[in-house]
Amino acid sequence: MTRKLLFFDMDGTLWDYRNYIPESAIKAIKLAQGNGHKAFINTGRSRSFIRDEKLLGIGFDGIVSGCGTMIEYDDRVVWSKIMPAEEVDRILEITKKHGFKVIMEGTKCLYANVEEFPDDDQNYYMRKISREMGEDLHRLSDVKNGQIQKFSCSTRGCDRAPFKEELKDSYDFIEHNDAVMEVVPKGHNKGTGIQRVCELLGAQIKDTFAFGDSINDKEMLIEAGTGIVMDSGTDEAKKYADHVTTGLLEDGIMNAMRYYSLI
Known about the structure:
Hypothetical Protein, Haloacid Dehalogenase-like Hydrolase, Chain: A, domain 2; Rossmann fold; alpha/beta
């Protein structure tokens, strides 16, 4: 059997909004590894925001984090794109000018002025960050030497067009909805993460599988040899799927692996 490389989005794919991971997903990943395949997290989260012990305890072979800005394999960093300090300062000035609330995402910490974000249902993400990051969530004033990979913005009530025009030559934009946008250095996304892992391991793209659920999985679903989307995922993501499996909580990962004879 040819060794396959399996890439898993986190939120909405490996676990739900409560960080619940189905036991069937854990079992399927371990069975696949037992068959000689390699399993990678491939997430938009920066490395600092990947810390759950049960998740990491699954025993992934590597982690692609920050939309491809950092890659780890066998517990060592093999690729890292860090924004220069002067560029971080420039971004903070630009986001402030356009009225955006910003989260700077680093390899070890996240940085945001929490009180600037509205405390309502649309601010669920900030509450989740505060709960999971604890003391590793710092104020923007502490961002110096923060090893920033990418950033996210709350843009509710703001005009995105002039902001994007100002940064379009250096950054790509992932627009989740009318309130949230991720901004990533050009040349980096979940798809380029798959490319770089293949180069590292001497693997072919046709032997890769990507598991996702939302629009920020688009590039890896397109890049992978086979793109799989949870039935519980978005209709937009399903447009790029080669196969739609059952929902996250309906053994979606295990059923997809069985469908493709990975286990």
